Sequence to fold (269 residues):
Amino acid sequence: MMFTSRELNTFISVAEKMSIKLAAEDLNITSPAVCSMIKKLERRIDNKLFIFENNKMILTQYGKRIYSLTEGHFHTLKSLEDKMKNNKEIIKIFISSEYLFLSPFITNQFKKKSIEIILTSVADESTDIIIDDTHNGSIEHCEYHSMVSELFFYLIYDKNNTCKDVFIHSEYAHLINKFILEKTIDKLKSEVGIGGKLTLSSNITSMIEMVICTLGYAILPHTCSVLKCMFNSTFELITKKIDVNIPLYIYTHKRIDTEMIKRIFDDKN
Fold:
């Protein structure tokens, strides 16, 4: 094992299957070996991880806490191990906090090209791609290529819609306001001919349902659920681009194919 210990591997497997036998089959070892590994780990941390109640195996409170703290990291490291063993290309990407909502889109775009990525919260010399909301003068240009793309927003609605309420997801409402300031509604009215109340929402699914049910408009970036929204609707939805010209600064390490990155982020078409 490169990044995970045998003990942790065993603990996670037992905790998820709640069965010594099933964990043993999963790990391809014997049931006594699983028991021995768990006991060894319990002795090391001086705490019980599992108990039996009414012939049923359950996690102790301490076991639940250990599982909640380690499970996410374990599967990330396990996935990384598997990818490295299979010699898959892995790209490390830093995204500034302002653009974290791009993560699902970015992950999906690289997945389409059979490239695995790791999202990191720290940008250092091992980072392959840095995505920032402002120009970063500290980037070593001798090692990184830089490009500026745009983050597009679209207004989506049904042509039969009579409601004037406009829904925008709270995660990127500040970006709209940052570039249009308080004149958001006025700009929408002049560009797409609507007026009304701008309503924040934290649930993109409910926003899509409002559009599909012709109960309002929705503002979505091209990186989110525009196509999903249109696909789920039995009506003819209209999509209009809102001209806000939000820049996206992308720094690509020279070991990465820059042209491929441009095709992913340069979504002008």
